[in-house]
Design goal:
38% of the residues lie in helices and 20% in strands. It has helices spanning 3-15, 18-25, 29-43, 59-85, 102-114, 198-204, 218-228, 268-280; strands at residues 48-51, 54-57, 90-95, 119-124, 141-146, 153-161, 163-168, 232-235, 244-248, 255-262. Strands 4-3-5-10-6 form a five-stranded mixed beta sheet, covered by helices on one side. A three-stranded antiparallel beta sheet has the order 8-7-9, with helices on one face. A two-stranded antiparallel sheet has the order 1-2. The longest helix has 27 residues, at 59-85. The two termini are 32 Å apart.
């Protein structure tokens, strides 16, 4: 059995759907299906029950999933230890978002336990680059928020957070239980500098062209709201100063927390980071 084929099988077994697994692996579905059928031929038993709505594991598939996870984890550990012996075990992580997020804390603890000898370097980034320096080669992997241009990048969604509008506490709309984007059409919205990813800017403007002050950092957004009454958007659940209030938006798609890395990057440290992140942000 090849490690690559086992990675394919684990993806299908975890997603329980060939289409979703193919998307996660950044490949088309037909070669993935062929690879799993070849694996079943090598094993000599059916691994998956296939249905139009998805797949379920057979008893043999359940056993192989446990063994494949252990084997792949061991293979990555071997690569990491060899890299450490060569003095090359370093991972640079770009982070855009709340450093107090419980998911981030769980991820840091899990990664330290699995890779105690790896030197982790953190690059905090502002709102002008949702890829946290990936395209510039400044980081190996990013913990950020979508949407943004994903060309040449691999992206895995870790969590989806509902979004609200940030207003001054004395704003007439601040006491509402819920708002719609149309009710904010006449307001000024914060803008990112020219050249910022267009999909990223459009999302934080509620999908429509807006006018307003240019900001680069979260604190600048909050000050724009506080001083100028500018409309700001933020994921729900974040603490705000007493002078500000957040009202849920009924028609705003959720903000996705994602891990992103360069497509085709086979670095086992990156792969391990993404898998651990998926678990840490699921709780």
């Amino acid at each position: 059995m090849e490690l690559r084929t086992l990675r394919y099988f684990v993806a299908v077994a975890e997603e329980l759907h060939f289409g979703r697994a193919a998307g996660r692996l950044h490949m088309s579905q037909p070669p993935l299906s062929r690879a799993i059928k070849q694996l079943e031929a090598e094993v000599g038993a059916l691994l998956l029950h296939r249905a139009p709505t998805g797949v379920t594991l057979t008893p043999v598939g359940t056993v192989l999933l446990d063994e494949a996870r252990a084997l792949l984890e061991h293979a990555d550990r071997v690569r990491v230890r060899v890299a450490a012996a060569a003095g090359a075990a370093t991972l640079t992580v770009g982070i855009l978002g709340d450093g107090t997020d419980p998911g981030l804390s769980r991820l840091a603890a899990a990664y330290r336990r699995r890779h105690p000898g790896v030197d982790i370097r953190i690059r905090d980034t502002d709102l002008t680059d949702p890829t946290c320096g990936l395209r510039a080669g400044l980081v190996d992997v990013a913990l950020t928020r979508a949407p943004f241009d994903e060309a040449a990048l691999a992206v895995r969604t870790l969590r989806a957070d509902p979004v609200g509008v940030v207003l001054r506490a004395d704003d007439p709309l601040a006491g509402r239980a819920r708002l719609g984007l149309a009710e904010l059409a006449d307001r000024r919205w914060f803008q990112f500098p020219p050249g910022t990813d267009a999909r990223w800017q459009a999302y934080w403007n509620g999908g429509s062209p807006r006018e307003g002050p240019v900001v680069r950092a979260v604190q600048e957004c909050l000050h724009a709201v506080l001083w100028n009454g500018t409309v700001g958007l933020a994921p729900l659940g974040h603490e705000l100063p007493a002078e500000l209030a957040v009202v849920p938006l009924a028609d705003m798609p959720p903000s996705r927390v994602v891990a992103a890395w360069n497509d085709g990057d086979g670095n086992p440290l990156v792969r391990s980071f993404v898998e651990l992140a998926a678990t840490a942000y699921r709780h």
